[in-house]
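Hello everyone,

My group is preparing for a crystallization screen and wants a predicted model to guide construct design. The compound we'll soak is zinc ion. Before spending weeks at the bench, it would help to have a computed complex in hand. I've included the protein sequence and the ligand's SMILES below. Output in structure-token form would be ideal because that's what our pipeline reads.
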Amino acid sequence: MSRLLTLVLFYFMVSFNTYKDVKIPCYAWMSGPGKATDAELKTQFTNLKRKGIIGLMYSAGQEPEKYRRIGKIVKEADLEFHAWIPTMIQNNNPKIKPEWYAVNGLGESALDKPAYVNYYHFVCPNHEEFYQYLEEMYGRIADIPEVDGIHLDYIRYPDVILARGLWEKYGLVMDREYPQFDYCYCDKCVADFKAKTGIDIKSVEDPSKIEEWKQFRYDLITNMVNRLAKMVHSKNKQINAAVFPGPNSIAKKIVRQEWDKWNIDAFFPMNYNDFYLEGTKWIGEMCKESVAALNNAKPVYSGLFICPDPEKRAKESDPENHGLLPEELEAAIRESMENGAAGVCLFTPDRMTKEDWIVFEKAISMDY
Ligand SMILES: [Zn+2]
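Reply:
Good plan to model first. Here are the tokens for the complex, ready for your pipeline.
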């Protein structure tokens, strides 16, 4: 064989090898489509498939027509297609009544006085009509043939404690639960809790000490998820969720997600180490906890937060622009896999640099 031919063959082996040799299921969170044409989307999705991504958690609002259009193209690229739609955060919408929004310990509604950021319009999980709204909205999208699953997000309360890495950004010291970030104290929640336990939560000096009050709120979210799961499963579709790390060490404590009780098909913990001022070893610890909490019965895909601009990382003060550097990505994937994760999920492919993709393609073709 001539040297040139050997080189050409070698080039093709390297270029196409990744597609065949991928050993780790990798998903990606993505939003769109913006103004992209069908052809542009096809190129984008095909590229991701070639790089080793097997499925997309795709966010395109709540309109079925968008998912129908994008789903067809995603399927042409031979990827799984999950509709990624926030649950408890809802913008002003004629179908959602202002009185359904969650109320904090100071009596302020998340509709007109959201915590932390202006989009934190959390709805209270204790309104049957709101559940019906969600069931209808998710149901319409689950009915689309190209949709493989519903991916829940913001399926939680507002952060009663922010992740440690975000305190400086918001100028807060969150050494305990403060009433302005603690939800929900709407009339219905207060009355239902009183009827259930005899406790008037509004008269309690430190509600964070009342275990039943915590459980009451975990259960409201869990019930909502499990009802949605039943509906989605009845349509023979999957349902999964982006969750906070843990559940015990973080998710329950800061956003009241007792997600090990959720009857869904897969869990995507956002193991965003920089938000917690942690390194890649912590990602492994979180995966270990998640897998153990689920008794290894459901797949856990370790959510990895990628740094969009590694060169500016050191000078960047906003943790939301931090994230894994190319030299950390292999360790993040290895830690996840060696601690029981079924795969990983990238936040986001758009943040991945050329260097990241090189590391990624190698890391996902290894045995762990
Ligand atoms: Zn409420």
